[in-house]
TrEMBL record:
Domain of life, per lineage: Eukaryota
UniProt lineage: Eukaryota, Viridiplantae, Streptophyta, Embryophyta, Tracheophyta
Organism: Phaseolus coccineus (Scarlet runner bean)
Protein name (database record): FAD-binding PCMH-type domain-containing protein
Keyword Protein biosynthesis carried by entry: no
Cofactors demanded by this protein: FAD
Amino acid sequence: MPAHLLWLSSMHLSSYFTFATAIAIFFSFETSPRDPHQNFVQCLYNYPNITNSISNVVYTQTNSSYSYVLDLTIQNRRFSNSSSKPLVIVTPLDVTQILATIICSQRHGLQIRTRSGGHDYEGLSYVAEVPFVLLDLSNLQQIAVDEESRTAWVQSGATLGELYYRISQKSKTLGFPAGVCASVGIGGHFSGGGYGLMMRKYGTAADNVIDAHIIDVNGNLLDRQAMGEDLFWAIRGGGGASFGVIVDWKVKLVPVPSTVTVFNVSRTLEENATEIIQKWQLVANKLDERIMIRVDISRVNSSQHGKLTIQASFVSLFLGGVEDLIPLMQNSLPELGLDRNDCKETSWIGSAVFINAVLIGTSGNEPPETMLNRTQIYLGKGKGKSDYVSQPIPVEGLQGLWRLLYDAKVENFQLQFAPYGGRMYEISESEISFPHRSGYIYHIHYGVIWQEEGDEIAQRHMNFIRKVYKYMEPYVSNSPRAAYVNYRDLDIGVNNNGYTSYTQAKIWGLKYFNNNFKRLARVKTKVDPDNFFRNEQSIPTLSIEEN
Ligand SMILES: Cc1cc2nc3c(=O)[nH]c(=O)nc-3n(C[C@H](O)[C@H](O)[C@H](O)COP(=O)(O)OP(=O)(O)OC[C@H]3O[C@@H](n4cnc5c(N)ncnc54)[C@H](O)[C@@H]3O)c2cc1C
Ligand SMILES: *[C@@H]1O[C@H](CO)[C@@H](O)[C@H](O)[C@H]1NC(C)=O
Ligand SMILES: *[C@@H]1O[C@H](CO)[C@@H](O)[C@H](O)[C@H]1NC(C)=O
Ligand SMILES: *[C@@H]1O[C@H](CO)[C@@H](O)[C@H](O)[C@H]1NC(C)=O
Ligand SMILES: *[C@@H]1O[C@H](CO)[C@@H](O)[C@H](O)[C@H]1NC(C)=O
Ligand SMILES: *[C@@H]1O[C@H](CO)[C@@H](O)[C@H](O)[C@H]1NC(C)=O
Ligand SMILES: *[C@@H]1O[C@H](CO)[C@@H](O)[C@H](O)[C@H]1NC(C)=O
Ligand SMILES: *[C@@H]1O[C@H](CO)[C@@H](O)[C@H](O)[C@H]1NC(C)=O
C-alpha cells in the first residue's frame, strides 16, 4: 500500500470521530479558572487517541521556541512585528492532531489560522485581530510520486520546489504546472488556483488536482468522494481557509519533453521595449501552447546610458528544443530579436531552477537540490495587487505607466504580465472555482518590496502601488475589476470581523471569484454554517433570503 494510504488507514474514521467528539464535550465541562488558551492546551493534552505525543508540537507564548516557530515561514516581513500573534502554535505531525486542534479551538472560543507555506500577501495565515491558534502544517511534507499512474499525493506543508524535485527524481518526462517560486506552500497555492509558465499548456495547479483530504469543522476527514463534488469544486480556486483544513492533494502529473528551453532577455526603452510589448500584447495569448513568455517590467539604471530607464525582461519556458523555438519566435515575435545564445536548453527541473532564480535573483545554474532549500530568502516587506487585461493597452497607456515608474519614490517596484490562451481558454469559468479564463489576454501582478523599518516608509510604498493600480483602471477588466485570490489584497474589501453578509462581501468576492462567488457561498453555508473558519476575506455564509 502506498505510504500515504497507510498513514490514513491507521484510523477507522467514522466511529472514531463520534467517540472523539463525545470525549471533547465531556472535557469542556471540567471546571477550570484558566485562560481560554490554557483550557485549549489542556483539551489537546487530554484528547483521546492522538497518534503522536501532542505536547511536543504545542507552543504557547512562554515557550522559548515560540518566536522561532512563528517566524519560520512569515514570508512577508511587513507582518513580522505584528502585535496580533497567535496564543498557541500547533505544528501537527498527523491528522489526529489537526482534528484535535479544530475541535478544541471551538470548545474554547479560539479561532484558527491555517498556514502551509506562509506566503499569503496579507499575512492572513498567521496574523489575526482575535484570539487565535496558528495551525502550522510545515511538518506535513510527504510527497509520494507514482510514475506509473502519473499521479502524486502531496501534503499541504510541502513546497512547490519539493514537489518538482521529487517528480524529477522519478521521471525526466513528467512535470507539474504550478507556480514559479520554490518556497511557496502547496496548501495555499493549490486552493487558490496556482500558476506558472506551463499554464498555457496545462492550466492551473488546481485544474490538475484529482483528489484531496480535508478535515471539516466537525473533525471529519473526507476524501473527494466523502466531501462531495461541491466542496471538492470549492477548494480548487476558492481558497482553502473558508472550508476546513486540507491535509493533502492527489495530482495528475503532466508529460514534459526531456529537453526544454528557457530564456530571460531584457530590453530597455532605448532598445524598443515599448514596441516589443505592443507586439507581445497582440500575440502572446495566441502563440503555440508550448511557449509562455512573461514580461517583468521595472525601472533600472541603464548601464549603457547611465540614466534611469524602464526595462522589460522577457522570461520564457518553451516545452521543446532551441531548434524549434528560434523559427517560432522569428515568426511570431521577431521584434524581440531572440538569439540562440540567449537560450538555455535544460531538463524540466533545470527550467524550474532557472525560473525560480529569475525571481530570487540567483544565477540559475544551481543544482536541482536548490529546490529543496526552505531557508527563507529574505524578500523583505511587500505589498502585491493584481489585474486582468482584455484589450491591448494602447501605447499612450504604456507611456503614462512609464512616467509613473520614472517618478516613483520607491526602488523595488515591478509589474509582471503573464499571458493567457491555450488551455486556459479551453476550461470553462465554472469548471472549478478558480474563475478567470477566456476573454483575458494576460494577467498583471504588481509588487513592491522594501527593507527599511517604519510606518512612513511603509506608507510611501503602499501609496505608490495603489497609485499605479488607480492609474491602470481604464486599461484593465471592469465590473468586476478581476483579481487573483492568491495575490491577496485587502484593499479591495474586507469582512467585518469575519462576519459580513454575502451582499456586502460581493464587493471583493466578485473580483476574486466572479460568477462562482454565489456557489462558493452556498458550499460554505452547507459545510461550515456557523462560520468557524473565517478571516478578513473568507467566503460568507448565506442567509435564508440570500440562498
Ligand atoms: C514570493 C512569492 C512568489 C509567488 N509566486 C506565485 C506564482 O508563481 N504563481 C502563483 O499562482 N502564485 C504565486 N504566489 C502566490 C501564492 O500562490 C499564494 O500566496 C499562496 O496562497 C501561498 O500558499 P502558502 O501555503 O505558501 O501560503 P499560506 O500563507 O500558508 O496560506 C495562504 C492562504 O491559504 C490558507 N491555507 C493554507 N494552507 C491551507 C490548508 N492546508 N487548508 C486550508 N487553508 C489553507 C491560509 O489560511 C491562507 O488563507 C507567490 C507568492 C510569493 C510570496
Ligand atoms: C481509542 O484508543 C483506545 C485505547 O487504545 C481503544 O481502546 C479505543 O478503541 C480507541 N477508540 C476508537 C474509537 O478508536
Ligand atoms: C517548548 O516546546 C517544545 C516543543 O514542543 C518542548 O520540547 C519544550 O519543552 C517547550 N518548552 C517550554 C519552555 O515549554
Ligand atoms: C521590527 O523588527 C525588527 C527586527 O525583527 C526590528 O529591528 C525593528 O526595530 C522592529 N520595528 C518596530 C517598528 O518595532
Ligand atoms: C528599434 O527599432 C527600430 C525601428 O524598428 C530599429 O531600426 C532599431 O534597430 C531597433 N533598435 C534595437 C536596439 O533593437
Ligand atoms: C540608480 O543609481 C542611483 C545612484 O547611483 C542609486 O541611488 C539608485 O539606487 C539606483 N536605482 C536603481 C533602480 O537601481
Ligand atoms: C534575468 O534578467 C535580468 C535583467 O537582465 C538579470 O538582472 C537577471 O540576473 C537575469 N536572471 C537570470 C536567472 O538569468
Ligand atoms: C539555502 O538558501 C539560503 C538563502 O538563500 C542560503 O544562504 C543557503 O546557503 C542555501 N542552502 C543550501 C544548502 O543551498
